[in-house]
Amino acid sequence: MRGVTGTAGCGHGRGEGAEVLLVRVAGGDHQAFEELYGLVSGPVFGLVRRVVRDPAQSEEVVQEVLLELWRSAARFDPARGSALSWILTLAHRRAVDRVRSARAAGEREQREALRAGEPAFDHVTEEVEAGLEREWVRRCLRRLTDLQRQSVTLAYYDGYTYREVAERLSLPLGTVKTRMRDGLNRLRGCLGGAA
């Protein structure tokens, strides 16, 4: 990540770093992909999460986008825009496809249920379960320290990279990475009790 972090602070610099990495990824460079993953996974997750809404579905879509990125890096054309814009466009398309697919599946279920004379699913139960999940996540987030909560929220809900989180909080990058790791471990432990 050392080669990228120096340019990751601003949008324009980050795009240039991503472009160099994309060229290396197109050549099959695993290290470049790892660096690119670290650079763009936060913004990609933030965008996908806003479109898809469901955290688990969002994580699946992000993995699909990053896999597509590995497979299609050679299709990137710097003459048509920055690497980050291209990557976020891939992510947006994939997220919209997921929403449309889920909507179509729900409509099919409802049509089938109407034909069978039964409800497709219990809307009240679905809403209550979603509300309970959101409350459980909020409760677990409250168990984190202020710095852990701020770092996790900025990275996973607002889509900032670690470097951007460090800049926003005026903290060293290493401190933010440590707090984020500790916070995610605590969240994982807390949310594991929800299962």
From TrEMBL:
Q: SUPFAM superfamilies, alphabetically?
A: Sigma2 domain of RNA polymerase sigma factors, Sigma3 and sigma4 domains of RNA polymerase sigma factors
Give the RNA polymerase sigma-70 region domain ranges: 41-103
- Keyword annotations for this protein? Sigma factor, Transcription, Transcription regulation
Q: Which residues form the RNA polymerase sigma factor 70 region 4 type domain?
A: 134-187
Any single GO molecular-function term of the entry would be: DNA binding
Q: Name one GO biological process term.
A: DNA-templated transcription initiation
Q: Which domain of life does the UniProt lineage start with?
A: Bacteria
Matching entries from InterPro entries are given as: RNA_pol_sigma-70-like, RNA_pol_sigma-70_dom, RNA_pol_sigma70_r2, RNA_pol_sigma70_r4_t2, RNA_pol_sigma_r2, RNA_pol_sigma_r3/r4-like, WH-like_DNA-bd_sf
Cited Pfam families: Sigma70_r2, Sigma70_r4_2
For this chain, the family text in UniProt reads: Belongs to the sigma-70 factor family. ECF subfamily.
This chain belongs to the protein called Sigma-70 family RNA polymerase sigma factor
